[in-house]
Amino acid sequence: MSETKRWVQVTAVENIPLREGRSVQIGGHELALFNLAGRFLAVENRCPHRGGPLADGIVSGAMVVCPLHAWKIDLATGSVTNRQENQNCVKTFRTRVERGVIAVELGLACSEDGEPAAECLGSIAGESCIGQTTSSEV
Ligand code: FES
Predict the structure, then answer these.
(1) N or C: less crowded end of the chain, CB within 10 Å?
(2) Pocket lining: 53 vs ligand 1, CB cutoff 6 Å
């Protein structure tokens, strides 16, 4: 098995409300996907402090405030902005929108022949690659 980067369709843009986050399980990753006024950003859905669910945090500008202990995470860089003593970062993922669908670039395990090993993979045009959002209202 090796790892390769693939664009994976996640959900329609209208499923992520303005200035909110939603958690998404896809390709073995749990992501937090945010809508910053039409700009979609994705980070791993796990706060570097104690694993709080960042998708449930309050969005402030280009940051999310963790719902557990209020650490602020920069959604573009993944860095913690209000704890100078903490250099931990949250993993970030590139996103793009095509035909109203948000796609995220993921590192995914592949078999020896280069075929994706997970079931939730495919091209941006495929219909079978939509991940499952797990927060309410989606
Ligand atoms: S778990 Fe996020 S600030 Fe503590």
Answers:
(1) N
(2) no
CATH number, domain containing residue 17: 2.102.10.10
Q: If we measure between CA atoms, which residue out of 95, 43, 93, 94 comes closest to residue 72?
A: 43
Q: What is the pTM of this model?
A: 0.78
Asked whether residue 31 is assigned to any structural domain, the reply reads yes
| Residue 82, ligand 1, Cβ within 6 A | no
Phi, psi (rounded to 5 degrees) for 15: -85, -10
Q: Is residue 138, in this structure, part of any structural domain at all?
A: no
H or E segment and range at residue 31? strand 29-36
Q: Is 69 in the pocket of ligand 1 (CB under 6 A)?
A: yes
Do the beta carbons of residue 108 and residue 117 sit within 8 Å?
Answer: yes
Q: Which two tokens stand for residue 56?
A: 């449930």
How many domains does the chain contain in total?
1
Measured in angstroms, how far is the CA atom of residue 113 from the centroid of ligand 1?
A: 41
Write out pLDDT tens, residues 68-96. Answer: 999 999 999 999 998 877 677 999 999 99
